[in-house]
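Support case: user asked for a sample of complex input and structure output to validate their parser. Sending the pair below.
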Amino acid sequence: MRKLFEFIRSVYVVVLFVVLEAIAVSYYARSTYYTQARLLSRSNQVVGGVHGLFAGIGHYFTLGRENRMLLTRVTQLEERLAQYEEAATAERLDGYMQDIGESKYRFATGSVVANTVNRAQNLITVNRGHRDGIVEEMAVLSPDGAMAGYIVACTERYSVAMSVLNTSFRASGKLADSEYYGSIYWDGLDQHTVILGELSKYADPQPGQEVVTTGFSQYFPADVLIGWVESASLNETRTAYTVRVRLAAEMSRLGEVVLVGNRDLFEIRDLQQSEQVEQHTRLK
Amino acid sequence: MHRTLPYLGLFAAAVLLQVFLFDNLSISIYLNPLVYIVFIALLPLDTLPVALLGAGLALGVTMDCAMGSAGVNTIATLLIAFLRPALIGMLYGRENAREGGVPSSARFGERLFVSYLVVLTLIHHAVFFSLEALSWTHALHTLLRVVVSSAVSVGFIWIIARIFTAKLPMRV
């Protein structure tokens, strides 16, 4: 019996190490990007304020660039507004507006308080939460309207978004002015490019061509700019293109973001999961 | 104990520096220095292995919560906390280590101290980045991240170690 105790005393550090390591490994193995986002959003309740302070100081230095960007955006919108005004003078606007009603998308803005680009699972923390009407699955766009991620977890005052630079990120994208679409994901190699995979071999992507979102994805509105084609290669079986897309959003300099929510998302989802739809799919 | 306080300070400084400074260095995808392990590296030479494991656990869990990385930090930090006594024994000799004191270039000699930091950092970063990538498809890419980040980490850890040991008397 005493020998047993002595034996245990001589190896208890190793045993303790193995036990702790096993617990940590199993927790990591069972974790998903959602667990990680939840963990981060919880710790943000403690350190969010300090992050916000530093981010505020950081923002001060990018104000000029942001101003220029906003200015170009304003001119673009002014241009479009001018078009509408023209229509109004032709007294047709009333006719247009009657059926439009409330917009399908809801916009909000927020500041990035923490953001990384150098991990495999990058997450963005935004200083808006449930209190400001932010909910899970809202799209996150850069100030000039390019895709940057989508919200995965919210607390009262903060929310955490999965960055497009996250190996778990999935969205659908297509070449502008064509109907060929594929899936957008990040291979974890370069913070400036993402991959547009499974694009039909008939699509013929050209360098410089715009890549935009499709309307199928429930997170993003249709025709949000993702980036520009950098290079394309056919896969081994020569059935589909794998396209490297240069990101339009500058992820490492993300200061302000635009959040877009789909008002109809829950209605569409309820409908998709409704009993009638289920009955019909069961009959097949 | 009278040296608890400086170490509590070091723990807080390491965590705060990592969360608010080094995690925000969005310069390159290859550069992700994990400087917080300076706390493990600088614990006294005569620290009990159990206490080392405890420190590693506390540090790893804290960093996991702060970085939202669900266990990677804990796994890597526990490993270096566990291996540290063996490493010091190998580099410096068990008998010398038993006398206690803070690991430093004055104590070890410059070359030995730097190689101690390099080995400790390389182990930690190798575990961290390969677990984060979780695939062998980009092995070269992961290796490059380990090497670049470790080089920068060792630099910062050396500087922090210099500051920390300058304030402390050699033998406490």
